[in-house]
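Notes to self after the call with IL:
- keep both proteins in one doc
- input above output, always
- annotate only the second one for now

Protein 1:
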Amino acid sequence: MTRVALLSVHTCPLAALGGKETGGMNVYVRELGRELGRLGFGVDVFTRSQDPTVPRVVPLGDGARVVHLEAGPARPLPRPALVAHLDTFVEGVEDFGREEEIEYALIHSHYWLSGLVALELRRRWGAPVIQMFHTLGAVKNAVARTAEEREPEVRLTAETRIAAEADRLVAANPVERAQLVWHCRADAARVAVIPCGVDVELFRPRDPAGARARLGLAAERVLLFVGRLAPIKGLETLLRALAAAKANGLGSTAVRLVVVGGDKEERWDGVKEGSDVAQAAGRSCRDQMDVERFRGLARELGVAAWVEFRGPQPQDVLPDYYAAADLCLMPSRHESFGMVALEAMACGVPVVASRVGGLTVTVQDGVTGLLVPEGDAGALADGIAALLEDEGRRGALGRQAMEWARRFAWPCVARAVVGLYGELVPALRAVTRPFRCQSLHFS
């Protein structure tokens, strides 16, 4: 069996979504690995162990598995701190390959930390490297509003190096390709545009009343936010928009904003001050403080009774949240793609999102949802109110959203990725299982 190595150093694809280190990239790596396995490839997804109770090797599906490697303390660490442990991670990958008597035909790395590992493995193995960043430090810095939100120089330097040295790069859309060229001086001819995917069997329209009953939601109108509680996700703008909508008459309707995301509480007893673990503990405490800050802001704005924080949720529970929602809201400052938007649309739910980054092509304005200026709480409030008040339009957008999202079924995405693999390793071109795919190109 021909095997490929997928690298996801800083976050495990099996982790619950919505936490500080988890999001669309976790879904991408997990679903791509599973689909490649279904196609007949052997797939090993290498990630850093963050919990000693999790088995070293966990099955991911037919022919695919996740391999947890020891590289530094088996606890969450700040991403820049992981650079010091990358050599250990490389040795762990090599040791595993020797133990299993495996030679990997290709390395597919995700995020900048994985890219650094991939370049060293290529030097040792000679296998080609395909890199996907998922988000760029320079782009995050462009929308940062505080020093704490800015990405360190080590990341910016690494991304420029990886963009220059990887055999091929993958961008989720033309916007990201342009950012790679502009910020990292990447060669546009070496950047393949392959969108992210969605599980159309899991994320599909279902009965809203049943979903609300299972989730204990009794409100007349349900709004949904899914994502990390990081400033870049724009939850503050959403709360202000909710207050504006309430002031403009939405208060006569029973509304509930459900927030899915945010880290669960963790214990940090016995942690040495100043250590990497202490820094991670500080981040976790800040995450919990963020929840309280958002609760406080909701009280200040007079919408606390409308907002419910549900924390991170398992992937198989998310479809009920989408089904229960009248609208899915993405007020982000930036998104490379917007996988949450794609999942919501696959469930037949219109999206109201910021007109930024990949959302400008993932969401078709006026067709599958609405795009509004980033940070404009008034425009966001108007978009929410307009769709809540127009059931016919909301229904039409939802139906069109579902049809659009089905273009991005994971089997189609995986075949596009295999096509790219085949350009570097001709033996990887074979695909075994038929699946009817529509065009993956954005219009």
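Protein 2 (the one to annotate):
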Amino acid sequence: MFLYRCNLTLHDNVFFATREMGTLYETEKYLHNWALSYAFFGSSHIPTPYRLQGLANKKPGYLEPDNEQNLLNLNDAGIYVFSGMPLKWSYQVNTFKAAQVTYYGKSKQFGDKGADRNYPINFGRAKELAVGSTYRTYIASSEVVEIPRWIRLGKWASKIEVDARLIPASGLTATTGDYTCEHPLNPIDLPDSSRLLLYNRVVMPPVSLISQARLSGQYWDIAKPDNWAELEAWSGLEDLPNRVCLPQGGAYGASLAATPA
């Protein structure tokens, strides 16, 4: 197995409507692994039809085999992308004029009753991840894979710089037992061999993540050797924590897979 450490730097504001509270649309500080999967491999491993028709045009099909743009294509390629963990982040709140739709609110023009101030009644605020925020994620692959230098992410297709480094095999140890994973995980993608013991829930669509989880099962113990600074293979991995534990066997929809009869 090949495991890549990827550092992400935001060059544009990133916006997801994680929570909608009245006129405030807030972006969670974590980056969902499904969104990152499309950003990294949407043009290389996931089919992108020119036009979607019928039901496929009206609902997402992340794990549905009938949907051409499903994430199961990455399972076939032996690729799995973990969620993005914030290293340094800040927010910027932008105000925008909301659509004039009947189910949202009555359209009011300047000067109408209730609109006596010099701004429209129907407006919203977007709380976006600001430029300069940095994240770390990991990509596991059954073979060497090409990772793009730049990706687009979020509703605004924001520009993100990627610094990907292959973690040397000497730093990977396959282990079984109880462990703590500080990196955010998608519980739907955990294999049956992993058992959740304790975790914090991060509520966000389309699937809530978990963080600071305590698990039991097979995992990768990533540790720097004592003389890592002298080894060329570890060049560029100075920021990697001295020890990282990640579950083995992660795959899209792994916990939802039907058990063979």
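Annotation: Helices lie at 33-41, 72-77. The chain has one domain: 2-256.
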